[in-house]
Specification:
Blueprint: E1 3-8, H1 19-31, E2 39-43, E3 58-65, H2 71-89, E4 96-103, E5 109-110, E6 113-114
Parallel strand pairs: 1-2, 3-4
Antiparallel strand pairs: 1-3, 5-6
Enzyme class: lyase
Function: Tautomerization of D-dopachrome with decarboxylation to give 5,6-dihydroxyindole (DHI).
Family: Belongs to the MIF family.
Length: 118
C-alpha cells in the first residue's frame, strides 16, 4: 500500500490536469503495486525553500511496504520518478527531491485494524 505525497511551490494552475491520477498510475508501475492500492496526495502553492533557494521546486515522499527498502531499489525508482516529475512539472532535476520511507504492515491502519492482519 504505497503512499505518494507531492509538495510543490508551483501554483495549482501550473500543474497539469489530472496530475494526481497520473502520479498514481506511474507509482503503481514504478513500484510494481496495483493502482487500487496506491494513495496520492498533491499539495501545491506551498512556501518552500530547496537548497537555499525559493525558486519553484517540489519534494516527493514515497512510503511503501517492501519496495523502497534498499539503495538499489530506490536508485531505479528515483530515476523513473525524476523523469515523470521533470516532464509533468517543468522543473529541472536540481529543483526536485525525493525521500523514500520503507513501511512495515503494522504501521498502516485500515478497516479498524492494521495491514498485518488483512
Amino acid at each position: 500500500m504505497p503512499f505518494v505525497e507531492l509538495d510543490t511551490s508551483l501554483p495549482a494552475e501550473r500543474l497539469p490536469p489530472g496530475l494526481a491520477h497520473t502520479l498514481c498510475a506511474a507509482a503503481a508501475d514504478i513500484l510494481g503495486k496495483p493502482a487500487e492500492r496506491v494513495n496520492v496526495t498533491v499539495r501545491s502553492g506551498l512556501p518552500m525553500v530547496l537548497s537555499g533557494s525559493a525558486e519553484p521546486c517540489a519534494q516527493l515522499v514515497v512510503s511503501s511496504i517492501g519496495v523502497v527498502g534498499t539503495a538499489e531499489q530506490n536508485k531505479g525508482h528515483s530515476a523513473r520518478f525524476f523523469d515523470l516529475l521533470t516532464a509533468q512539472l517543468g522543473l529541472g532535476p536540481e529543483r526536485i527531491l525525493i525521500r523514500f520511507y520503507p513501511l512495515e504492515p503494522w504501521q498502516i491502519g485500515k478497516n479498524r485494524t492494521v495491514m498485518t492482519f488483512l
